[in-house]
Records
---
Amino acid sequence: MRCEDFADALAASADVRDGSQSASLDRAARLHVEQCLRCQAELVQYRRLLRALRTLRSEVLEPAPGLLSDILATVEQAGERHAVRSLLSGRRAAYLGGLAAATAAGAAGAIVLASRTRRGRLRLAG
Amino acid sequence: MPADLAALVLRAKEGDQPAFEELVRSTYVDSYTLALRLTGNEDDARDVVQESYLRAYKGLKRFRGDAQFTTWLYRITANCAANQLDKRTRHRHDELPDDLVLLDDQVDHDPAAAADVSDLRDQLRIAVARLPPRLRAVVVLRDLYDLPHEAIAAELGISETAAKVRLHRARRKLREDLRPARFEPGETGEDVRAV
């Protein structure tokens, strides 16, 4: 097999983290690399590339002024909306609760009235 | 997670608004850096960061603390950036090329600036910026921010296999871009047999 056939395997196997390789070469690739100086050099370069990439992690790209206040304003608005929604849903619950209580009281009253009327009729008939 | 950040997260989860604002203050530059690396555009990065914190604010109660808060935030940022890039692709009238130009890319057209770019980090930064956004996202999330393949796939809306394929393609592209520069073989005594 040619070096090019192992290019992806080399790119993957360079992924060494904390001293342990997360993606090791399969047997065919390993045998090839052990015999191929070009692929050995390539693997070393991939490892250097990854180490260099990791050093970019510590770099900070400063945002233009105003970003922090924009984020805080967005979050504050979301907080206010949430508070208003909670208030409204609380009021709605209270309103619905009151309505349910009134309906129940009305129904109870109607039942009492109906039963009294019925008892009065029975007495008259007796 | 740093103790103070963990304490802020706990307070913010209980609805303490100033605690969440303090979390924003402590992390927003880092989030912006990631967003800019992913989108390659300052305006997009600002939008992505704002959207990310809004989502974090709304979803903080669901944050279980298994991972660090910053890792959780990176995942949200990655997802928002992917959405932003999708949006950009859909709105073709923006006429934005697939290979977005990042700030550092200007050295291409400026010989004086190009002469200043002398070390590997600079060249690498430019090479990363030149990657197509889809490849850049995986290499940034994996090789810079150390996110697992599974998380990268989930946030970018692709399969884990696709994430790995893109990562390998991105590394090959970077390797090729840097080949004539500092990555000449034979200058290191590193043991390559540990393969």
---
Amino acid sequence: MQEIHIEMTAKTPEVNLDHLSGKLELKGRSIPENSIEFYSPVFAWMDDYANHPKPETALHIQLEYFNTSSSKCVLDILKKLQSINQSGRSKSKVYWYYEEDDEDMLEAGEDYQAIIKVPFEMVKIKA
Amino acid sequence: MFDIFDFYEKMEDGKIMLSFKGEITSDLLSSILKILESKLDHTGDEPRLRKKVYNVLVECLQNLYHHNDGADTNLPGADQSALFLIGRNSESNYRIITGNYILNSNVEGLKARLDKINSLSREELKAHYMNTLNNDEYSGKGGGGLGMIDIARKSGHKIIYDFKQLNEQFSFFSLIITIAP
């Protein structure tokens, strides 16, 4: 399997998926018109990674904006992480970043936290 | 009658930040969002408010992009252009207005969804959002019905809407979103 690195654009986030370190990262903004198209390679990579994960997996989500069509995709990524975690093969954790004054982004993280059975850490960053 | 000078003056003193009528394409969305992000940065408003407005803008514009029934020009009476306007009223509230053609057959469903959203409290909206998010359904466009719920949550105001029937096939759907500082 291969790492994935996707550069950030005005509408899509930087994506780094590293099976050697178990570090998965989404960073930037996610507001594409067609988010399923953008996230399909991420879904495919995670399905592959689920077969031979590292003992620990950390998913870092640092989004400045995301649209509602991305929000479904983010949930699917989290659900894939949840199954990896529940398989017992990789201890998983989500790091959810939000700017200190961005209550909406904190609340969005808490919404996911309520649905997904993986430990979350809310990480406050300076605006 | 529409007064162009009045419109010009309103634009000049910042009440109308941007207005547009025409076909909504992906490139156009990118340009409008870029312009408005830069305008929002210069308002001096708190980042929290600017982000809220930007988020609602993205959803409103993408609604126009995905759900413009008039874009199907094979239908009689179709008009593929949509209307978009953002401005501020005298209380400094942001106002976002959109307008687009909708098939008469889609009116009832959308109206029911909007009425439901408008009937919910803040906490109920959150629950409705999470149920819709987690229902495993994607719409053809990806959002699966989350857009309007998210707009209502972020704006904190009731959604004002209107359907004006134009002919046997189409109605004109207009939407007014308010975001208070």
